[in-house]
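Subject: sequence -> C-alpha cells, single chain

Hey, anyone have a minute? Need the predicted structure for the following. Not urgent.
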Amino acid sequence: KHSSSESNAYYGRPIRRLVCLTERVEDLVAEFNRRIGLGAVNESDADKMDSDDPDENRRYRSFKKLMVWCPSARNLLRSSAEHEILAFAYNKLNEGSDGARGDDSASLKCAVADWLMERTPTPNPAIHRQDKSGRGFYNDVTGGLLVRASIRDYHPDFRITACSWPTFLYEDGCYDPQNPTNGLFKGKLLLKAFKRVFTSPTSTYEEQPADLAARSVRNKNSGERRTRRDLRFALSSAGSWRIVDDEFNHQEFYDNIVDYLELPPSPEAAKDVDDLLLWWNQKVFGRKFVSDYRPQHANKMSVAMTLARR
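Reply:
Had a minute. Here:
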C-alpha cells in the first residue's frame, strides 16, 4: 500500500502541468459520473453531452486530459476498488499535483529574477531571487510586464483583473489595440519559462531550440497555458500561491487562455491557433521536426500526383 501511495503521488505530478489549474481529481471524475448518471453509456457518449454550464464543460475537458496524461487515474476509474480506496488514491494524486506546482513556482521565482536582472539597464531597485515582496507593482520592471505601462501611468485607478492580457504575453511587449491577437502568447519571457519547466533549465539560454525527440507542443498546450499562469505568479509580489491575488483571479486568467486555444469561434480563429502552436513547436523543438506536428498533405504532392497519372 505504501508503494502504491508513492506511485500515485508521483503519477499525479503532471496534473497541474497538463490537465487543470485547481480542480481535484475526484471532482473531474464526478463530472464524468454525472454524465453517466444522465444516460451516457460510456466515455464516447459522455463526450457528446454538452452542458449549459461552461464550468461543467471545462471540467469535463479536464477529465479527458486526465485520462490521457494520468494513466493511473484511468486505471483507478476502471477498477472495482471500494470508495475509501479510491478516495485515498485520488488524494495522493492531488498531493503529487500540488507538489509539482509548488516545485515549479519555486523554480521560476528564482529564474525570473535572474532573467530580469540580466537586462540592460539593470532593474533598480534590484529584483531579489527569494524575496518577492518587491515585485509586482512595487517594481517598474515587473509591474510593466503585468500590465501595459500606458494604462498604469495614465489610469492610476485602473483595476488589474483577468479581463486584460498582461504585457509579458506579447511579443516584445507590444500590444496593438487594432489587432489584439498580433504577437499574443509569443513573449520571450513566456518562452523561457516554458522551456525551463518542460525541457531543461539550461535550454532557456540556448539560441537554438533543444535537440529533443519531437513532442509536439500541440500535445502540451495545457502545459503552455499553465506556464503563463506560473509566470504571472512569479512576477507578482504574492508570497504564496493563491487563486485570487488582489483583484486578479488566476482561475479566470487560466480559463480565458483555455477558451482561446480550445474553443476558437471560427475556422479563421482555429487557423490562428494552429499557426500559434506551430510557432511554439518551432521555437521549442526546431524546424527539423516540423512534419511531425504539421504533416504534409502527401496525396497532393508530386509523387502522389505522378502515381495517379500512371
